[in-house]
Amino acid sequence: MNVLLLKSVKEIELEISQEFEIFDSWMDRYEYIIDLGRQLSSFPDEWKIEENKVQGCQSQVWFKTELKNNLFVCQAISDSAIVSGLIALLLRIYNQKDPSDIVATNPTFVSVIGLDEHLSPTRNNGLNVMLQKIKNDARNMVLDQQLKTKLN
Known about the structure:
By secondary structure, this protein is mainly alpha-helical. The protein has helices at about 10-20, 25-40, 80-95, 100-105, 110, 115-120, 120-150, and strands spanning about 60-70, 70-80.
């Protein structure tokens, strides 16, 4: 079993915050974020369709989410190196988590590590759009689960 499954959204946010403390400058942090993006799983071209495209991002961003074994499962990619790194952070926090945990938890890592102050306004907006996409998809999964429970 994947160790990440055992950790809550908050625990992973704390780990990320601690990792970012070791860097002396924002250039080092940006390089780290870009390196994270290079490690994203491949995203098949057939998933790069309008339905999976995230609207409101400066870069091209695609998210594919599904409920699998009662967990939020997401794959994503961007044509931008820095945005791919931000996606890697988001996936580390939210992928393979209980959708209700995602809905109930506000993302604090953005301000704790200083992304909200150091990203350009358009990148910051794109990060918020991606976070909202994750939250909305998780909320829809929770609602679908509740509906199925009521119908059974």
